[in-house]
Amino acid sequence: MSEQNSRGGDDAYEHHGGFPVYEPVKAGPNFGRFVDVFRRLQDLAVSTHAPDDVVDQAIAQAEALGDLLEPYKVGEGKSPAGFNVDIPGRGSLLLPPWTIEKFDADGVRERGHFRRYHLGGNGAVHGGTIPLLFDDLFGMVIHASGRPIARTGYLHVNYRKITPLWDELVVEGRVDSVDGRKAFCSAELRDLDGTVLADSEALMIELLPGQP
Ligand SMILES: CCCCC/C=C\C/C=C\C/C=C\C/C=C\CCCC(=O)SCCNC(=O)CCNC(=O)[C@H](O)C(C)(C)COP(=O)(O)OP(=O)(O)OC[C@H]1O[C@@H](n2cnc3c(N)ncnc32)[C@H](O)[C@@H]1OP(=O)(O)O
């Protein structure tokens, strides 16, 4: 069934701007573990200082792994990475390993942690990782609200406290108001005591037909 957009259109193509209509790519039973193994390697790649011969062995083994996987490369929208909401970070290594707790029209909440890979300085999460979390959340907020596909016009982040690695944290966002194609959104990142570590406001702009 097609849905109406803010201009009253009801065409499925219009709903997706210039995006292709993706079919869900279901992950196999071992894909979550596949992602976990690579997350461990990402952490180790940025937290080890191994002797040269060990680095040489790691290069050889990683190249062998690359050769194993290379024949299975697929285009955008054809890999389970990024499309499986039951896997932390939807199975995408770009995203931190957060899990969706709430996904409905009045907002989206996710719970998770940052890892060594996301280190900035002096034990804190890298300041560029937090906008990534918010930006992706706002994409899902738009999707959950039933609005047509949108891109981020602006994303403002206030860093209120140091965000720690490894601690369980919660992020929650919603659409606050809508003006034609423009959806004004907000979100907060909190620790489990409820302290706000960062908050964000974003303008999500509905794509016109054919816009990439
Ligand atoms: C991916 C699928 C995964 C599926 C998995 C399954 C479930 C998950 C569910 C959902 C998916 C979840 C996540 C998706 C992933 C990521 C989401 C993040 C989204 C992004 O990460 S996306 C990348 C960063 N994003 C860009 O790469 C945008 C580059 N940009 C443009 O592409 C154009 O900019 C465009 C097309 C946006 C607009 O262009 P345009 O020409 O159509 O429109 P125009 O400029 O006229 O603006 C219209 C009105 O917005 C006002 N306006 C514009 N910009 C403003 C600003 N900065 N400040 C204040 N107002 C602004 C104007 O003033 C006017 O306002 P008014 O109408 O009142 O005059």
UniProtKB/TrEMBL annotation:
Q: Where, per UniProt, does this protein localize?
A: Cell projection, Ruffle membrane; Cytoplasm; Membrane
All residue ranges annotated as the Thioesterase domain in the record: 122-197
Keywords assigned by UniProt, alphabetized? Apoptosis, Cell membrane, Cell projection, Cytoplasm, Fatty acid metabolism, Hydrolase, Lipid metabolism, Membrane, Transit peptide
Q: Per its UniProt entry, which superkingdom is the organism in?
A: Bacteria
Q: How does it sit in the membrane?
A: Peripheral membrane protein
What EC number(s) are associated with this protein in UniProt?
3.1.2.2
Catalytic activity, as annotated: (5Z,8Z,11Z,14Z)-eicosatetraenoyl-CoA + H2O = (5Z,8Z,11Z,14Z)-eicosatetraenoate + CoA + H(+); dodecanoyl-CoA + H2O = dodecanoate + CoA + H(+); hexadecanoyl-CoA + H2O = hexadecanoate + CoA + H(+); octanoyl-CoA + H2O = octanoate + CoA + H(+)
Do you know which Gene3D superfamilies this protein is assigned to? Hotdog Thioesterase
InterPro entries, per database record: HotDog_dom_sf (IPR029069), THEM4/THEM5_acyl-CoA_thioest (IPR052365), Thioestr_dom (IPR006683)
Write out the similarity annotation.
Belongs to the THEM4/THEM5 thioesterase family.
Instruction: Output this protein's name.
Output: Acyl-coenzyme A thioesterase THEM4
